[in-house]
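FW: tagging you since you asked about this chain on Friday. Here's the raw sequence from the shared folder, copied in full. Didn't touch anything.
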Amino acid sequence: MSSEYAKPLPYITDDSRPFWEAAKDHRLVLPLCGDCGKYHYYPRLVCPHCGSRDISFAPVSGRGAVYAFSIQHRAQGPGWTGETPYVTALIDLEEGPRMLSNLIEVEPDPGAVRCGMHVEVVFDDVTPEITLPKFKPVEA
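HL: got it, structure written out here
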């Protein structure tokens, strides 16, 4: 954990607070609709599937597969200086939603990352207040 984290941090709203509080405890929870029974991501008060406002947060497995990825070779700002290249990825979670995150513990090389690669969530305590969910490859 670094007290001098230089990258942008998430803006926590009342809608997203349960997600970020769980992440701080190294747990992944997602909004779950009480009417249609589907999870969604990003956290919001209205279900994007059916429009219901009957939303609660429920734990998910944190397992999924890479849907798409990009290898960043340019620093996107001062906070990324010296950290390139790195991998950003869209992750299809087992429960259905797709999350954008970083893929870690893998070479940032097109020969090492592939669509369909199995991943699981890990947590990065970037500040005392904020923990970011990231993903690492796992065996299928």
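FW: Helices lie at 17-24.
HL: agreed, and Residues 62-140 form a domain with the OB fold (Dihydrolipoamide Acetyltransferase, E2P) fold (CATH 2.40.50).
FW: great, closing this out.
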